[in-house]
Amino acid sequence: MTDTILSVDALSTRLPGRMLTADSDGYDAERTGFQQWDAHRPAAIVAATSADDVREAVSVAAARRLPFAVQATGHGHTAPTEGLLISTRRMTGVRVDPATRTAWVEAGATWRHVVDAAAPHGLAPLSGSFPGVGAVSYTLGGGLGLLARRYGFASDHVRRFDVVTPDGRARQVTEHCEPDLFWALRGGGGHVGVVTGMEIALVPVTRLFGGSLLLDVTQAPDVLDAWRRWTGDVPDELTSAVTVLTYPDVPGLPESLRGRSIAHLLVAYCGSPDDGRALTRPLRTFGPVLADTLTDLPYTASGSIFDEPEEPHPYRGDNLVVRDLDPRALAGLTAVAGPDSPVFTVVGLRHLGGALARPPRVPSAVGHRQGSYLVSVLSPVAVGEETLVRGLHDDALAPFADAALGRRLGFAFRSLREDALRTAFDAGDYERLRGITRAVDPHRLLHTGHARG
């Protein structure tokens, strides 16, 4: 307790006006992120506005051996801390260099910031399905986005990180300078430090043919297997997914959706609209289409494809990367999201392969590149429901275990114990990541969303 008090005093002196405690106005708002389960209750919060603020905060934590965590922007799960919380949400700067097709992205910038900055130059980042996700935190987990099958993981396109490691050192990390950290930061989940900014390559994409088709599962009971078969010969330029959920029967929703189990067929194609229409025509044969938003759209509107909720809420989720999809397992998956589920649940499938399966120019910690599909399950969670939700998710994924390669960190919205965390990496890579983490954080000060060995 004495060290904590001394640390708070030191932070007040070194970062006047940027430190909050439980008595400060704005403390509750600052400690609360998009993921509202497992709220932080830190002794102090540093509302960082620059990389220097982050360095000062980590230096104090390192000197006092005070546990700390980062309140990053986006959907991720971070283990709560009672020590120091570093909030990077004010660090939203983005600088685009059209000559080199790169962007410098600060720690708190969302993909919306990056997309809007790149678009006037005819460029786009490898952003995710939700524009409100933090670009840095997303990339640290690998980054599986709308252009994934054409261009690979977002982490494959990082040129440089600026990072403050838990020993208080500010480092510039590239493939040539600090190569071990460069490997670990691309797909390792942020265990080795606080990233204050990154330089990423952009791609020459201005428009997509994309959107969704909505089908009633009772009228298209084999929709998941039909989608699986359709993905068998689509080009790399086409990235797709399917989600299933049951809409509540409440006023305000369209009559065609209320109380129904609905499959969303989601498409992002970075080719011509005519080719996109031809490629997606078979989707319309799966069953009666209740709604159709497939169209040619600017990349700045790409968030409309998944149209994910923007309101923060508590939730849990898990996933498996699989070699293939067993039709028998798919048949049971729709029931998990059906009207008889004990809690509201969304199940999802994402098509992998293409550029995702090819090794990057510079090796990284991203695992399971040979996976063909990602199976995910997600539920909002209320007080007293976490055990129920965890059991439901485990049961939903169990039929896919024989084909499973492991997890994808960016879709693991739950605390992972070490044995589960290990499954997110290829053989030997977890031990390498653990060794790098121990070297820069021997006292295990940095709290991330998952356990460490």
Content-based structural category: alpha+beta
Percent of sequence in beta strands:
15-25%
Number of strands: 19
Shape: globular
Question: Biggest sheet: strands, sense, closure?
Answer: 9 strands, antiparallel
Q: How does CATH name the architecture of the largest domain?
A: 3-Layer(aba) Sandwich
Overall tally of structural domains: 3
CATH class of the largest domain: Alpha Beta
Mean pLDDT over the residues = 91
**Could you tell me how far the N terminus lies from the C terminus, measured between alpha carbons in angstroms?**
26 Å
Radius of gyration: 22 Å
The unreliable regions are none
Helix content: 10-25%
Indicate the multimeric state: single chain
Please tally the helical runs, counting DSSP H or I stretches of 4 or more residues: 13
- CATH topological fold name of the largest domain: Vanillyl-alcohol Oxidase, Chain A, domain 3
